[in-house]
């Protein structure tokens, strides 16, 4: 009686196990609603708990209304309380994240109160966006829309000084039509900040829930804006190229968000 000897079988290849959990509960790039709803989600994704965050245009603190108290170490300041975001009292490389939300409409930055935007029915706008006062322009600064950009860029340069390497800069902005020109402020900021050494890590669109009112309209020329942006930048260390920069490091600590193998987002 012959005995059959089973030939050794090759070992089955190890099954690849996918990391992570299947979920639809992810932070999305567009949100219909209010600043106070979206802002905490942006922080949750890009700023680790315990981080030192300077909000340098704190205003009425609307952004922070739904942020759990004590999650971050918040340093609020504003021109209205005596601190210009272009000359901060913080030491070099001492801040983990910085929030910048200056007036985004050139009309609110005009030096003369009589011609400054936000009069009449827009008086609430003036109070909210420009603290009811004027933002002194730097020597040689531009006018009209250029004044808006100058403020963002000068504040970003100061942010770069106070942020640690890999620190996060969250910029709120809105595009505007100024002097009959379409000004894509968010594009101008991304370009300008790349030149200052910031990598554009993320972009969020905030859609107004209600329709903007129109007082008088002869002929519509441009789409009326009902969206704004939160741009999330990261400070690229000196000596590294913005165009080649990639990191999962977030400060404080080096805890990368998410699974290193995940290339989905
Ligand atoms: C849109 S509001 C900020 C609203 C704020 N994010 C909130 O959640 O309430 C703009 C703020 O920028 C402030 N501001 C204007 N120019 C400034 C400057 N050069 N430095 C610091 N703050 C400035 C105004 O006083 C105003 O409070």
TrEMBL record:
<protein>
    <submittedName>
        <fullName>Site-specific DNA-methyltransferase</fullName>
    </submittedName>
</protein>
<dbReference type="InterPro" id="IPR029063">
    <property type="entry name" value="SAM-dependent_MTases_sf"/>
</dbReference>
């Amino acid at each position: 009686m012959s005995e059959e000897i089973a030939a050794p079988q090759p070992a089955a290849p190890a099954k690849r196990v996918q990391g992570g959990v299947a979920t639809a509960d992810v932070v999305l790039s567009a949100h219909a609603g209010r600043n106070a709803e979206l802002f905490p989600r942006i922080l949750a994704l890009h700023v680790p708990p315990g981080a030192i965050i300077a909000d340098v245009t704190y205003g009425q603190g609307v952004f922070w209304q739904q942020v759990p108290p004590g999650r971050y170490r918040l340093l609020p300041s504003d021109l209205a309380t005596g601190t210009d975001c272009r000359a901060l009292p913080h030491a070099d490389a001492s801040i983990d994240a910085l929030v910048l939300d200056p007036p985004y409409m050139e009309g609110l930055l005009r030096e003369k109160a009589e011609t400054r935007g936000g009069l009449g029915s827009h008086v609430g706008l003036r109070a909210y966006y420009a603290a009811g006062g004027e933002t002194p322009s730097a020597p040689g600064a531009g006018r009209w829309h250029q004044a808006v950009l100058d403020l963002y860029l000068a504040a970003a340069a100061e942010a770069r000084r106070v942020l640690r390497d890999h620190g996060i800069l969250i910029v709120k902005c809105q595009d505007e039509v100024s002097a009959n020109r379409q000004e894509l402020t968010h594009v101008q900021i991304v370009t300008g900040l790349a030149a200052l050494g910031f990598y554009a890590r993320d972009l969020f669109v905030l859609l107004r829930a209600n329709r903007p009112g129109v007082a008088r309209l002869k002929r519509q020329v441009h789409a009326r804006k009902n969206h704004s942006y939160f741009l999330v930048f990261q400070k690229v260390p000196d000596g590294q190229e913005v165009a080649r920069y990639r990191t999962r490091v977030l400060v404080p600590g080096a805890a990368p968000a998410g699974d290193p193998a995940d290339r989905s987002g």
